[in-house]
């Protein structure tokens, strides 16, 4: 239900049946819905959350059409059998008055007329009902005399009918694309027949048939020709044309093509009375995936700018991000930039749907939702109120060259479709640095500017594809950490990426998936691309999808990782700082050095197991059905004894062809045992090696429980999914699953804090990397940044999901950031370009002792470490039988807590730093990968996920938000004064129709019509009134709302009573006058003169 901008409401029938038709009780705050399970529902719209007051279930007949006359309490219901029933809206009880199909048609007719497709009372006489049947029969039924006054027959099926306001003519739309106009005075044949989109034939030949006209509306104007508006009716030879709405006004015919199929349309008119000039001014068109409103008052028929978020699924949503309590100026800034990018040509009039009232409630902090889409677009939404409003749209695909037919197979064969699809989003609202990663293994960094520029796009290509050779002990000759220059022989800094496509027969190498534009590009105000980083092919193998992403505006560094390793890039100097395999991150404490190399694989396996198989794993309901559920990588014991992996069926796993996969698991060989060579390789780690173990997936890709033998239970625990969809290697790899920049203690017993990068892997390992930045701000643009693993390792069960830090007082520490300044502002550039940094870390000059708490959450447990001593203070095993899908450290009521969403549907909240459970609710079992992919928490006790391909579901676990929810909801019903009907005049009242008033109560009531059969329909009372009272009383303004509604109703009754009293007084005066005249006439007459 949509009203004025900001007023909308979502309701759903409990049965889940499709909605066939809706009928408003105009200006009465109620709605009747007819559903496909043959049930009528009466909704109460006078409360903030509508509820069903009554339901009427038809048992023996199927509902096909409903009609409710203006200011009437009797609803006409047509059925599939051709009968017409009448329902009292107040009591929702069926009347005994029934129009049977065999009474409506002529006795000589031998065939059934079909279902009722139209019902409407005559504008000229309320006592006459027009009934349209599917086979082309139209009956004009006299309700009082209970007989057919006239019948109309046509040889084409009828889809819809509409009256001329004078009640003398009506128009029908037919299945052959024709429109027929009928006159009640000559019902034998149509007064006029037209096929608007049919080809003109020669004389004597029948006009060409077209597609059916599904609905027509015939609206008259006082000062111009009538409007004839219909959907469908196009010629069959134009099969590729899109769905259309045709507007005929006089001799002009305008066809409006739609992007999606038309579900229904409705013409908005100036008057609710059917017997007056309608004066249409707009057409509301409901499409399968959109809602548009066409302005009829202008000759070019522009559309109104839609204030509702109908285009959230314009391209399928692939990821989401939710930010509450953002800087207050961001929404205004994004909106001001987004307005300049909006399409032109909208109607200059206000949005015509203006019902209801919008309440802001007590919420004062701004909220922004960011959605990434399959076509590479990013949308920023204002979510500060209950509704969404789009602020700004960014198209990331503009930095890449368009795909050519010849190049597609060479560079983008790892992605079958949607190569620009957004995979991950990272946004720093304070510095306005925005970063995205795409399915084609690229990362783009954007800066915000209010000025337009034209510049070249700088790009980097990174090789990130490593494996381990046989171990060769060289402890004496190998340095503790290899030279970075030797690690990155192929990392380049270029302006535009170049493809070194090898000739046929040569393995592909150093080829990115997409081509960055090399020419200067015009960038409008808003987010402008500063750097594009692409992973390249290595020895014929495609780059793996990026699984983790983090940006630090204060350090000027972006880090990202996948199932092969980690890359760290300086986006200020546009250089690669680190690019190495995950296993090489442990090298500083490993006595045995290994040289990185590209994995050797069978070419057939490469062709069949590309990691990036399009977006099947992003939006399964819209493209391909993903074969994905859950997988757990069960850790193998260090013992040389081979272990058979056990299987445990997940209650929510999705089996397809005997397999089910995890949202982020990698495909591995089934039922594989460790060979002796593998075991020897696992046991070759040096004494300084951290407790790293290789993992192997279960044979049936399900949630695997730990092995149950006593000797293995101690060292074996459930290993959850890694963060890549599949692997190009048959052995599972240790993927980078979480990254976090922070001022912290890199090594044990450090006395001062320093810039650090926390790296979490799919096997539960945490590596702290030290970042050595230049001290002086001027040197940051010239001096190199040194990135080295610190040798600090922490471990948890399961893949690491999130990090956070707290100071010694328990306050949440925010990562440092750079204060935003416009990079293209000429005035600021003339001044000293000095970066202004905000460091939120605790002071390093505190007392000797631990200064910081580090919170680390994996998909199995959460731990709190004290730094720099690296002591584990608290540990909480969150789940044993399932795994955590999403975890975030959020702020609620000025306190930090850990929020987790588990695959079994539980939402759990834990206190920090003590990790005491505060909330555990079984909210929503994971039944769709869409939920796992889009679920995210934010501050102030809120979260969201994509509940369907077209809808975002917001939820709250904050009691304060629940208490204020009623005040935040808008009012759907605001009573207004009903316009007065036009005076028909003496002659129109005398010759224009029936002068008698039609009393439906007398005709359809139980006294005259009797009771309907109980077996025909069943009345079901609804909980609406009780729920409405609870909802109104739940908010602060509940009592005032109830009092206002009661006063409005009392005022309406007093107004009606006043009108009746005035009428009685007028009648009494007229009676007194006639009596006085009669008395004067016979006053002086004698008795014998009478």
What does this structure look like?
The structure is a single chain. The protein is mainly beta and 1090 residues long. It contains 15 helices and 62 strands. It starts with 18 loop residues before the first strand and ends in a 9-residue tail after the last helix.
Summarize the structure.
With 1090 residues, the chain is mainly β. Residues 471-503, 652-675 are annotated as: Disordered.
Give a topology summary:
Blueprint: E1 19-25, E2 30-35, E3 39-44, E4 51-58, E5 63-67, E6 74-79, E7 84-88, E8 93-99, H1 101-104, E9 116-121, E10 128-133, E11 137-142, E12 147-153, E13 158-163, E14 169-174, E15 179-183, E16 192-194, E17 213-219, E18 227-232, E19 244-249, E20 252-257, E21 262-269, E22 280-287, E23 291-295, E24 317-324, H2 330-341, E25 367-373, E26 377-382, E27 389-395, H3 408-411, E28 422-428, E29 433-438, E30 442-449, E31 453-455, E32 458-462, E33 467-468, H4 484-487, E34 492-494, E35 521-523, E36 526-535, E37 548-552, E38 557-561, E39 565-570, E40 575-581, E41 596-597, H5 603-608, E42 633-635, H6 676-682, E43 695-697, H7 710-713, E44 736-744, E45 754-761, E46 765-772, E47 786-795, E48 800-807, E49 812-813, E50 817-818, H8 826-830, E51 837-838, E52 852-858, E53 861-867, E54 871-877, E55 884-892, E56 895-902, E57 906-911, E58 917-922, H9 929-934, E59 936-938, E60 942-948, E61 951-956, H10 959-968, H11 986-991, H12 1000-1004, H13 1006-1009, E62 1017-1021, H14 1024-1034, H15 1038-1081
Parallel strand pairs: 32-36
Antiparallel strand pairs: 1-2, 2-3, 3-4, 4-62, 5-6, 6-7, 7-8, 9-10, 10-11, 11-12, 13-14, 14-15, 15-16, 17-18, 18-19, 19-20, 21-22, 22-23, 24-25, 25-26, 26-27, 28-29, 29-30, 30-36, 31-35, 32-34, 33-41, 37-38, 38-39, 39-40, 42-43, 44-45, 45-46, 46-47, 48-49, 48-52, 50-51, 52-53, 53-54, 55-56, ...
